[in-house]
Write a structure and sequence with these properties.
Blueprint: H1 6-9, E1 27-28, H2 40-47, H3 51-55, H4 63-73, E2 80-83, H5 85-97, E3 103-108, H6 113-120, E4 124-129, H7 138-144, E5 148-152, H8 164-173, E6 177-181, H9 193-198, E7 202-207, E8 220-223, H10 226-235, H11 243-254, H12 256-279, E9 283-284, E10 291-295, H13 302-311, E11 314-315, E12 328-331, H14 335-348
Parallel strand pairs: 1-11, 3-4, 3-5, 5-6, 6-7
Antiparallel strand pairs: 2-8, 7-8, 9-10, 10-12
Helix pairs in contact: 2-11, 4-11, 5-6, 12-14
The protein binds pyridoxal-5'-phosphate.
Pyridoxal-5'-phosphate (PLP) binds next to helix 5.
Length: about 350
C-alpha cells in the first residue's frame, strides 16, 4: 500500500528547469534568470546583517518589506501579501479560494506550474488552448467560469502580453477570481495593477526572481483588495519569508535605477538575439519577456537540438506541451552568452 494520498498517486508533479550547481561553467538559458547580478544594495545590506536577525523569528507580517514594495508600486501595504516566491502565492490562492473539484482555468501554453498546484489541491485544472496563431482564447475562458483563472502576462513560454482590454473583460465578467501573473512585467511597458483598484476579484502577482535578479532569494508579492489579502494571510505559513529575504528584498526593490538599467541591457540583447536567431533560420516569436520562443528550421527537432546544446554546455528549455513541443524557449543572456549560443547553433546546423 502506498502511503501517498490517493488523488496524488496519478499526478506527475511539476518538473522545474535543470539547476546545475553554482560555479559550473554552463551557459544557463533555461529558467529565465536575469544574467546580471542583483543590486549592489543587496550586498551592502547583507554586510549589515545582525546575528540577532537570525536568532529571532522573522516579522510574520513582513511590514517593512510591504512598505518598501508599497512605496515603489504606489499601493497601500494592506493591499500586499508577501510569499516565498510567487510560486507560493499561486499555491495559496488555490488553497484559499478553490474548493475540491472546482476548476482552475488557464490558457495553454503557459506556466505549467498552475496545473501541478491545482492537482495537488484537488482542484480541477482546465486548460484552454491558445489557437495556432497564439491568439488569446478570451471567449472560451469567459465561458469556462473558473473558480480561479490564471493569466500570465507577459506569458511564458510564448512571450505575448494579454491586452489590458482582454484582462479587464475577464475581471468584469468572471464570477471567480482572476490572477494576473506578471512575473515578466519588468520587461514590458504595460501592467494590470490598476485593475486591482477597480475589481475586487483581481489579484496581481509580482516577483523579484526575473527583473531584480533574485530568483534564489524567493520573494513574490500578491497585490489585491485587502479582503483577499487577509484571506491569503489567514492560511499562509507565518514564517515562509525569512528575515534575510525580507531585508534584502526591500533593498532590491528600492533600487529601481539599477533594475531598470539591467532591464534595458536585456531588452537590447533580446533584439540582437532575435535578429541573430532569425538569421540562422529560426522562426522567432516577438517577446515581451526576457526570453524568446523559437522554432528550428528544416524539420530539425527542437528536443534533439536542446540535447545537443546541453552536451555542449548550453541549457535551453523544451516543454512537452501542445503547441510548443516543436519549439524551444531561450532565456536572453549577456551578449557574450547569446553569441556563444548562436555559434554553437551554427555548428550544429
Ligand atoms: C518565473 C515565473 C514565476 C515564478 O516566480 P517565483 O517568484 O520565482 O516563484 C511565476 N510565474 C511565471 C509565469 C514565471 O515565469
Amino acid at each position: 500500500m502506498p502511503f501517498l494520498r490517493k488523488h496524488l498517486q496519478s499526478i506527475a508533479g511539476y518538473t522545474p528547469g535543470e539547476q546545475p550547481p553554482p560555479g559550473s561553467s554552463v551557459i544557463k538559458l533555461n529558467t529565465n534568470e536575469n544574467p546580471y547580478p542583483p543590486s549592489p544594495e543587496v550586498f551592502r545590506v547583507l554586510q549589515t546583517l545582525d546575528p540577532e536577525w537570525l536568532r529571532r523569528y522573522p516579522d510574520p507580517t513582513t511590514v517593512a518589506l510591504r512598505q518598501a514594495v508599497g512605496e515603489v508600486l504606489n499601493v497601500h501595504p494592506d493591499w500586499i501579501a508577501v510569499g516565498n516566491g510567487s510560486d507560493e502565492l499561486i499555491g495559496l490562492v488555490v488553497r484559499a479560494f478553490v474548493e475540491p473539484g472546482e476548476t482552475a482555468i488557464y490558457p495553454m501554453p503557459s506556466y505549467v506550474y498552475y496545473r501541478a498546484v491545482a492537482q495537488v489541491q484537488e482542484a480541477q485544472p482546465v486548460e484552454i488552448a491558445y489557437d495556432e496563431a497564439f491568439n488569446f482564447p478570451l471567449k472560451e475562458i469567459l465561458d469556462a467560469q473558473g473558480a480561479v483563472t490564471f493569466v500570465a502576462s507577459p506569458n511564458s513560454p510564448l512571450g505575448n502580453v494579454v491586452s489590458i482590454n482582454n484582462l479587464e473583460t475577464l475581471a468584469a465578467n468572471l464570477q471567480g477570481l482572476l490572477v494576473v501573473d506578471e512575473a515578466y512585467v519588468d520587461f514590458t511597458s504595460t501592467n494590470a495593477l490598476h485593475l486591482v483598484q477597480k475589481y475586487r476579484n483581481v489579484i496581481v502577482l509580482r516577483t523579484l526572481s526575473k527583473g531584480y535578479s533574485l530568483a534564489g532569494l524567493r520573494l513574490g508579492f500578491a497585490i489585491a483588495h485587502p479582503a483577499l489579502i487577509r484571506d491569503l494571510n489567514k492560511i499562509k505559513d507565518s514564517y515562509a519569508v525569512d528575515a534575510i529575504a525580507a531585508l534584502v528584498g526591500a533593498a532590491a526593490i528600492r533600487d529601481q535605477p539599477y533594475k531598470n538599467s539591467n532591464v534595458r541591457k536585456v531588452l537590447r540583447s533580446r533584439a540582437i538575439l532575435h535578429r541573430d536567431l532569425a538569421a540562422l533560420g529560426f522562426r522567432v516569436w516577438p517577446s515581451e519577456g526576457n526570453f524568446l520562443l523559437v522554432q528550428p528550421p528544416r524539420e530539425i527537432a527542437a528536443i534533439a537540438l536542446q540535447q545537443q546544446l546541453k552536451a555542449r554546455g548550453i541549457l535551453v528549455r523544451h516543454f512537452d506541451v501542445a503547441g510548443v513541443a516543436d519549439k524551444l524557449r531561450i532565456t536572453v543572456g549577456t551578449d557574450e552568452q547569446n553569441a556563444q549560443l548562436c555559434q554553437r547553433l551554427q555548428e550544429l546546423m
